[in-house]
Amino acid sequence: MSKRRVFDIDFPTEPNDPSEPKMPPAETAVQKPDQRMRKPSEARRGPMATAISENADALRSRAEAEKKIRDENDRLAHEFVRLKKLGLVVDRIPVGRIGATKLIRDRREGRDPDLDELKASIKSIGLSNPIRVEENEDGTYELIQGYRRLRAYVELLRETEDEAYEHIPAGLVAKGDSLQSLYRRMVDENLVRRDISFAEMAQLALSYTQDEGTGAKSLEDAVSDLYASAGRQKKIYIRHFAQLLGAVGDLLKFPEAIPRALGLELRKRLETDAASIPELREALTQARAETEEAELTVLRGFLEGKRKPAPRAAAAPRPGVAKTTLRCTVPAGTVRCQARDGKIEMAMERDFSEIDRHKLEDAIAAFFAALEEQD
After folding, report:
1. Is residue 248 one of the residues assigned to a domain?
2. Could you list the residue range(s) of the whole structural domain that residue 163 is in?
3. Does 157 lie in the same domain as 88?
4. pTM of model > 0.70
5. Which residue windows does the record flag with biased composition (Basic and acidic residues) (predicted)?
6. In a 3-state reduction of DSSP, which class is residue 296?
7. What number is the average pLDDT over the span 257-265?
8. CATH no. for residue 136?
C-alpha cells in the first residue's frame, strides 16, 4: 500500500475587509538582512549560474581591454609611419648593413678634398645630420641620402678601429616611395650645397635617363624630374653641361673641376662647330692630364685656338693717372692685370663666384701681406 505525501501550500489571500491590515508574505518574514537588497531573480540563482555570469563579465572586460590595446597599437603604427615619412625616426644602423647601389650617386668615387674636414668634424662633435636609409626585407638598408657622411664613418672606422663608428645615426624612410621620389630626396638635399658642381649634376641626369626604372625618356625629362625645385636658369646650365659630357665626358678625368663659364663656353663652341669635337677629343687623349689644372689647361687651350678675337684699340689712360699692365702665368692659367692709383684689376678664365667666400678673403689678405713684405 503506497503512502501519500501531503504538502502544505499556503496561498496568499486578500482579506475581505479592506481595513484589515495585510500580512507580509511568509518568505519576507524569514529573509535575512543580506538578502533583502537582492533582486528576486538573483536570490534564486545557483552557484553554476553565478559562475557563468561572472565568467561572461570577465570575458567582456577582457575583450574591451584587448580592443583598447589594438586601437592604441594601430594609432602608434600610423604615427610611426608618419614620422618615418618625415624622416624623424632615427636609429643607429651598422655601417656594414648599409648598401648604396639602388640609386646612382651624384658624387664621383675616389677624390673628395673636403672629406677630411667632414671626418674631423665628426670626430670632434659627432654627426649632427643623420643619413637617411630605406629598410630592405632581409634586414639590410639602402642608402637614400648621406653618401659622404656614410663614407666618412667607414673611413673613420678603418683608420681608428673605434667601435663608435660601427653604427651611424640614420633616419628611416618609409617603404613604398617611387624611384623618382627617392632620387628627388637625394638631389634636393645636394642642391642646397654650394660645392656640388654642374658636371656632377649633369652626369646624374645622364645616368638617370639610362636607368629603365626611372621612366625618363630624354635628358629633358631627367632634368625636369631630378631638379624640379631648381630655378629655370640652373636647369639650362645642367642640360648644357650634360651635352658637353655627352660629347667628351668619357675622356674627362676631372669634369667636376670645370667652372660654369668654361663649361658653357665649351658647350657653345662644340654646338656651333660640331666638326671640332674630334679635335677636342684628340687633345684630351694626347694630353693624358693627371691633375685638374692640366686638364683645364687643355680645355682652355682648345678655346683659345678656336677663338678669333677682333682687333681692339687699347684704351688711353686718363691724363695724370699712371697705369701698369702685365700678364702673369700661374698654375691656374694666365692672369691679366691692370694696376693704377687706388685700383687693381685681375682677369682670367675662371668663375670666381664658385670659390668659397672665406677662401677668397684669405687669398686677398695673403696678396696684400706679400705686397707689404716686398716693401
Report:
1. yes
2. 60-178
3. yes
4. no
5. 33-45
6. helix
7. 92
8. 3.90.1530.10
DSSP state of 163: G
Q: Which of 64-73, 154-163, 297-306 has the highest mean pLDDT?
A: 154-163
SS (H, E, C) the chain: CCCCCCCCCCCCCCCCCCCCCCCCCHHHHCCCHHHCCCCHHHHCCCHHHHHHHHHHHHHHHHHHHHHHHHHHHHHHHHHHHHHHHCCCCEEEEEHHHEECCCCCCCCCCCCCCCHHHHHHHHHHHCCCCCEEEEECCCCCEEEEECHHHHHHHHHHHHHHCCHHHCEEEEEEECCCCCHHHHHHHHHHHHHCCCCCCHHHHHHHHHHHHHCCCCCCCCHHHHHHHHCCCCCHHHHHHHHHHHHHHHHHHHHCCCHHHCCHHHHHHHHHHHHHCHHHHHHHHHHHHHHCCCCHHHHHHHHHHHHHHHCCCCCCCCCCCCCCCCEEEEEEEECCEEEEEEEECCEEEEECCCCHHHCCHHHHHHHHHHHHHHHHHHC
In a domain, residue 68? The reply is: yes
3-state SS of 228-264?
A: CCCCHHHHHHHHHHHHHHHHHHHHCCCHHHCCHHHHH
% of the chain exceeding 70 in pLDDT: 74
Name the domain boundary from 122, 144, 178: 178
Instruction: Give pLDDT, residue 28.
Output: 47
Q: Is residue 42 part of a domain?
A: no
Does any domain span residue 277? yes
Give the count of domains, the chain. 3
Do 171 and 68 belong to one domain? yes
